[in-house]
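A quick aside before the break. I want you to see a complete sequence-to-structure record at least once, exactly as it would be stored in a machine-readable document. Don't worry about memorizing anything.
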Amino acid sequence: MFRKTVGEALTLGNRWGMGKASDLPRAVIMSGFTQEEVHIIMSAYRKADLPKQLWATLTPISQSWPIEKLLGELAAEDRALKKD
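That is the input. The structure line, written in tokens, reads:
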């Protein structure tokens, strides 16, 4: 299991862990973008018909969370939205 905080994960080198098996859900965690830019990126991703994934923007609070906790919260939120 990946045992780093979100902030620690952001310091890892490009392609770190690429090609390794993981039980974590696919996700994009963004930082440094305006709200408009985030929406543009998400819209372009969906229009390209790429694999489904979870989306988040980094906050001062989530930065200190273990990555498993953030992804778990995002997955629960995604499931709740699908019920409505």
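Two observations worth writing down. The longest strand covers residues 27-30. Residues 6-12+24-83 form one domain. We'll return to this after the break.
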